[in-house]
Amino acid sequence: MYVGIDVGTSMVKAAAFDGAGRALAVGSRPVGLALHEGFVEQDMEEVYAAVVAVLEEVTRQVPEPVELAGLTGQGDGVWLVDGQGRPVRAAASWMDGRAHELVHQWLADGTFETVFRRTGGAMFPGSPGPLLAWLDRHEPKALDAARAAVYCKDMVFQRLTGASRATTDVSDASMPFLDPRTRMYDNRVVELLGLTHRRGLLPPVSDPVATGGTRGEGLPAGTRIANGPYDLPASALGAGVTTPGDGLLIVGTCLAALVATTDLDLDGEPAGLYISTDRPGHRLRAMPAMVGTAALDWVLSTTGVRHEEVDDLLAATPPGAHGVRVLPYFAPSGERAPFVEPRLRAELTGVSLESTPADLIRATCEGIGYAARHCLEAAGLTGSLAVCGGGTRSGAWMRLLAEVLGRPLRVVEGEVGARGAVLAAAERYGVALDAAEWTRPTAVVEPDPGRAAYYAKGYQDHLARLQEARDRART
């Protein structure tokens, strides 16, 4: 039995797999988010307790020896811990918007672009650089009390293994301090963000990922476990996206577009990031947009529509949603990919008394699709495209998405991040698993040519309206 742990933003999951990659059991626990005036925080003790609970649930369901475990989780944010991995304060989430004025300042004075040209990472308010700089200005005592500013999975790994010090891996360290050429922290970037005196908080980078034995919480004592990569590259592994040019679209809370590459182009528009992987020279060009299914969730809640009604409503209104259009940038911290606009907000246009909930739902799904197309084009997609995440549960939305993107979709269902975490752990420990079998798609969705042509024109309209919205956000 192989166990993958995926510590998500709103849900912690663990999955047990057999040697052929078949899921034997899945456990999950929700975790809370505290939102207040742009602050988005999480209770680390609640998150860790959820990890232990789902591991106990899964191992009870499948009473087989655990060969090894792989750990992944949400990226970015700031998780301040003491020497034992315990919280100094609540974790600041990647969704947090408190540092948006700092990012806006760095956009204006050139710091933002300079950092991107050195690291390939476009900072956004919820990334560690801005959050640490904000905390240094407003909560210096919290930083004084901390031994390390880590990422979600790093806190969990230290607690599960009892490691004497916190570490991270090259994937999480990619934003915003890691030089992708040397795979080490760029001290000039630390200086540019005014954090040289906090340099000691950056955890050492384990390259390849750290391993250890568990101390008996959630998993049997001594179980071999590997720390990383974080959820985006882990999902790419779990979906079989390793060939340069191939891509993955994660339709989850965050709409993330990833393309495997061996290139490193730091001359384009500063946006997204290059995620380093365990294989030197191999990277993922990532365009992780701030809002994916969260935009649809907001519209469903506002209109009183249940998730199980979405497929029928998508069929109840034609492409174009009777003129209703949505720019789906609902996050309080604006957008981070494939451009950075901290003050950008969502727009809903073309609505009249004749508009129906079906029009609003379809327009939102179309808008998310256009945002995904923008991200994938910017990331350099040239090969096949896999798709995973909660959005894949809607067959109608997947057909719409294939038409908006104008290409077939390799749908990969199940716990893709946890699957990728196991594959990464197996590679680290030298355990032979058949990656092709583990990552086989569950379906392939082909686009309707006529609708794909219609949406190609709609995409150009989306780009024009987006540019107008970005211009307004800057004034």
What would your notes on this structure say?
The chain is α+β, with helices and mostly antiparallel strands. It has 2 domains: 2-233, Nucleotidyltransferase, domain 5 (2-Layer Sandwich); 293-411 and 445-473, Nucleotidyltransferase, domain 5. Helix content is 37%, strand content 20%. It contains 16 helices and 24 strands. It has helices spanning 44-61, 100-109, 111-119, 128-138, 140-145, 152-161, 170-173, 187-192, 231-238, 293-303, 310-315, 357-379, 395-405, 416-429, 435-438, 449-473; strands at 2-7, 11-17, 23-30, 34-36, 39-42, 68-73, 79-81, 91-92, 148-150, 168-169, 178-179, 184-185, 205-206, 211-213, 224-227, 247-251, 255-261, 273-276, 283-288, 325-327, 347-349, 385-388, 409-411, 443-445. A 7-stranded mixed beta sheet has the order 18-19-17-16-22-23-24, with helices on both faces. Strands 3-2-1-6-15-14 form a 6-stranded mixed beta sheet. A 3-stranded antiparallel beta sheet has the order 4-5-8. The model has no long low-confidence stretch (mean pLDDT 95).
